[in-house]
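ok so for the tutorial part 2 we go from a plain amino acid sequence to predicted structure tokens. step 1 is just haveing the sequence, like this:
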Amino acid sequence: SEMCKETGFDAVKEAVYGGNASCVITASDISVKTLKEVKFFCNNSAVDVVYSGLDSDEFYDAVGKKVVVAAVCDYGFAVKFKSLGTVADRTEEEKEKTAEITVSDELAFI
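step 2 — the prediction. this is what the tokens look like for a chain of 110 residues:
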């Protein structure tokens, strides 16, 4: 099946609120503000946010666009990404002023 990746903030937000996203992947160089907004709309829709450990240049190599956020619509792909990256804790209160980005050892785009 097709991975169906929506890239960029607006497209990802639309995919999440439209019920089409199985998870959202973020780049390691996403801004604190953008990450906070992504986590907000994903938490409201019970969609996992996955810290990929890839930066936007590596995202470009994988998806063909320089973006810091992408939605994965295919459930099987989402499960794989969640196993390779680090899933953000939905229940954790955002008390820190800076977001801590966890770097995974390796995330292979399929």
